[in-house]
Each structure stands twice: as structure tokens, then as C-alpha cells.
Amino acid sequence: MIKLVECPRDAMQGLHDFIPTQDKIDYLNLLLKVGFDTLDFGSFVSPKAIPQMADTGNVLEGLNLEGTKTKLLAIVGNGRGAELACEYPEIAYLGFPFSISETFQQRNLHATVADSLKRVQEIQDLCLRHNKTLVVYLSMGFGNPYGEPWSAEIVGEWAGKLAQLGIKVIALADTIGVANPESIRYLFGHLIPAFPSVEFGAHFHTTPDTWLEKIDAAYKAGCMRYDGAIMGFGGCPMAKDDLVGNMATENILQYFENQGERLGLEKQALRDAFRKARQILPGAEYQNLSWLVS
Fold first, then answer.
1. The pLDDT of residue 293 is above 70
2. Cβ atoms within 10 Å, residue 155
3. CA nearest 238: which of 141, 140, 169?
4. Could you give the number of structural domains in the chain?
5. Please, which residues have CB within 8 angstroms of residue 185's CB and are 6 or more apart in sequence?
6. 150, 251, 148: which is closest to 205 by C-alpha?
7. 277, 289, 283: which is closest to 30 by C-alpha?
8. What pLDDT, on a 0 to 100 scale, did the predictor assign at position 240?
9. Structural domain of residue 20, as residue ranges?
10. Domain holding 215: CATH number?
11. C-beta of residue 43 within 8 angstroms of C-beta of residue 279
């Protein structure tokens, strides 16, 4: 069964202008009606680093979770953020960005890769004590723009280390949008059977002309968990100056509709969410609306 993770947090976090808290609440409440498996709704990180997410606690208090099957995911960068997130029983998943690039991990979390692995263990222990699941995003999972060593074997080695810590969900993150069908097929095709206790997901950043080949390669290699953002907005503000957007949710939906996958989403709720997104995400445009009007 396909699992869809909608990522409004990723879509909003790099915006310069602060989105009012009530607008975020209204938007997320619409998304909660759609039927996504998971909603990456906010983060407990330094407000100096990501000021857009400084109101995550207040946003959470305004969410209407009654009747939704969607689980909440919050991003954390260290043990302190994880402790804050664990105070909320509504949150099912904690997400941690773990980069196999020393340069990017310092840039993103001001920590070495070795120190970050210790953070993973600390956060995993917190999750186990508070009945939550840790999702580790293996960032720079498809390439390294800093001239550091990268190979599929290195990715596999880190996946193995995370699996040894008991991590059950690992999302391979195409942080700078360099994944190609060959690397996608190879990584998912080898990792999924090598670590049967781990659920592997795809967090693709992409351009409008490369999204199809990426999702097609991942799906045919056995990946069943996909992150997306409505209208392909967002990207990682710590990666580099020219953002490569998230994979557009509407493209993901159209692809799986064409594959005959039953997604079970509420189309009217999704239309309402799209209208709200147009209001709060400046300059965003739909990628593909054929799924919504079918």
C-alpha cells in the first residue's frame, strides 16, 4: 500500500515572510481531512535557524485531529527539540535530518556526522520511551555537491548503521535534486531487500521536467512511501542558494492514479487545501491537476 507524506513544513520553512499562525492552522486542518498517511506539519528547532517554524507549538494546539487517520510528524535537530516534541501525545513521528556529508551536516545542524549519529541514538531512546517512531532522513542520499566521497555503498553503510540502532523508517532524501533513475533504482533495489525490517521512503527534490523519471524509478524498485508538497513548493534552505523544489503532490497523485493504485484520498478536501495553498504560498503554481478533476 502506498503511503503519502504531505510536507507543508518543508514547503513553508524557507519562505522569507512569516505566515500567520492562524493561516498555518487553517491550511493544516484542511490537509488533515484529505487522508494522507502522514503530515509533516512543523519542527522543534532553533527559531533563529528556521524562524518560520517558531510557532509550531501554537499551531499544534489549533489542529483538529478528531476523525482524521493522518499521523503527525515533527522535525527535530537535537535531543532538546526531541524532548519538546515528546511532550505532545498528538505527534506520532519525529523526523531527524541525518546527512552523510560532513559539510552539509555542519551547515544544517552545526554538528559532525559522528555527533549526529549520537543524536540519533538519543532521540531514538526518547521515542521508544514516549511511544513515538523516529524517521531518519538520509540527506545527500543521492549525491554530494561538496566534493566529498559519495557512493551507493556509502549510503548502504549508513543505512546499516541506522538499522542497527533500531531505526524503522529511513527516507532517502534527494536534497539537491541530483537523483537520476539509475541511482534511484540501484539504491532502493538493494536497500529494501537488504534491510527488511526498515521501511524506506523517497523524499525527492526535483524540477518540473525530472519528477516523472524519479518517481517511476523508485516505484518500480519497490519504494512505497513518498514525500510531497502541494505545488512542489519548498526545498532545503540550508542546501544551497538555488532551491530545488519538493516533488509536487499533484504529480505524485497523478502518477499513482495512472498506475491503478487506490489512494483513498478525499478529492474535495484536497481541492480546498489547494485553494488555501494558493493564498499562503506566494507565487506557487499547480503542476498537474488532472487527478483532481477526474
1. no
2. 23
3. 140
4. 1
5. 217, 220, 221
6. 251
7. 277
8. 47
9. 3-293
10. 3.20.20.70
11. no
